Amino acid sequence: MSNFYNIGLDRNPANYQPLTPLGFLERTASNYPDSVAIVHGDMKITYQTFYDRSRQLASQLANLGLGRGDTVSAMLANTPAMLECHYGVPMAGSVLHSINTRLEAATIAYQLDHAEAKVLIVDQEFLPVAEGALQLAERSPIVIVYCDPVWVEETKETANTTYQDYEAFLSQGDKSFRWLMPEDEWDAISINYTSGTTGNPKGVVCHHRGAYLLALGNVFTADMPKYSTYLWTLPMFHCNGWCFPWTISAICGTHVCLRLVRAEPIWHALTEHKVTHLCGAPIVMDIILSEQTQRLAHKVAFFTAAAPPPESTLAKMQQAGFEVTHLYGLAEVYGPAVVNEWHDEWDELPIQEQAKLKARQGVRYLPLEALDVMNPETMEPVPADGKTIGEVMFRGNVVMKGYFKNLTATESAFAGGWFHSGDLAVKYPDGYIQLKDRSKDIIISGGENISSFEIEDVLYKHPAIAVAAVVACPHEKWGEVPFAFVECCESQTVSEQELKAWCSDHMAGFKVPKHFAFTTIPRTPTGKIQKFQLREQVKSGKA
Questions:
Q1: pLDDT tens across 66-107, in order?
Q2: Based on the structure, what is the number of domains in the chain?
Q3: What is the rounded distance in angstroms from the CA atom of residue 414 to the CA atom of residue 423?
Q4: Do 404 and 446 fall within a single domain?
Q5: Residue 138's domain spans which residues?
Q6: What DSSP line would sit under 318-329, residue for residue?
Q7: Cβ(82)–Cβ(76) under 8 Å?
Q8: In a domain, 330, yes or no
């Protein structure tokens, strides 16, 4: 029998357009052109100006010959330029590659080469590291330097004259540039590199559809009304700022840029700009509380990920006027895709019980079709008993396209029709999940992923080291920090200070182990290191 609902009712430009978050900015600029979109220092940028500058950036990239599928790398702080890149780059049809500003030159060089970057937009503060990366890289992208006026005022630095200036570059652009919609909502909008457990970092490719849905999912999850004010305590390079660069435009909100996450400017922004929402790792809460002298005059929603904050921190945040919500996700699901949705009746529970509930990762975001804890061997859900451990798996439109130029890793991640997170968890009777371990040995420190294998590789290169194993160590401030166990070569010795200096010379500072133990490392009969024993030693304090 014919399905008449499919006859003569085909897609056409009038009834079908690919989903993309780029239209959020166009819509808000058209309807609220004079509303403040961005606050940065003494600057206030309206939505019309924000939209104009994004189109100027897009037109200039097009003038350089960039188009669909070309990569533009951005190594920027939380500044207006980074927000403009989130619109201007994909408006040219190109793909935005946001670089972690804390990385070392070698890793940046790898990313520039692997992503085939054609343009690098870099903050002048990070130019020395970027130049080091360019010397190591095989590619030679066009370099455009952004000289942040707030940074200039604080440091009294003079503007760079070696490379093309970002403002001069934009000034030549066309404000009325007819920017490109994606040809398909499956087209890539961004690539973000995530630490792997072995080898080089993997490039997570996200599409316009997922960015659109996750951005709107943030509105529902964060309960964000129109004209909300968002403070940028979360790095925009991290999973595209959890898609909030696009979310805020959808609600005609205001971005309050914050170049450095420090207590004084945070509290100033909270009161001066009536901030309503902010995000960050638990370390951000510690920074906020370090100079907390009064209770907020209005309720502020704080969304945190990574390790759950200590009970004492939650209590202090609540007393200061913050409403803390725990999120969970990965770069592969556009940032947060799981939320610890709070039930009103839980407010009546003792603070200790509330802390236990807040430590759970929660339930799926509205735009995520499925979330479960499953046995990776049988692909069957584990019992919802709060005890049986399985792997967290995702399915839906806010899951990545896959890993860039890495078919093997992509197929492995999507085995059985689910995205395998590699995180181990339990599931409770009410459907909430809680992480218990990480099968990939990833250490989450201050919200940043650190590969234990990367640290071990650096340690093995030291002439005095025979065996090295790195595990996560709980830390009150950072959530987790690397703890290194080492065995020295026969007749060789090395001090903890020497190893820290060695690591500092070969990797980013936040990856350097905070603790070292010189001991015999347990192995199986076949020589495999038994990391679970090392974790137990750290947990029990025997290390």
A1: 999 999 999 999 999 999 999 999 999 999 999 999 899 999
A2: 3
A3: 14
A4: no
A5: 22-176+184-280
A6: HHHTEEEEEEEE
A7: yes
A8: no
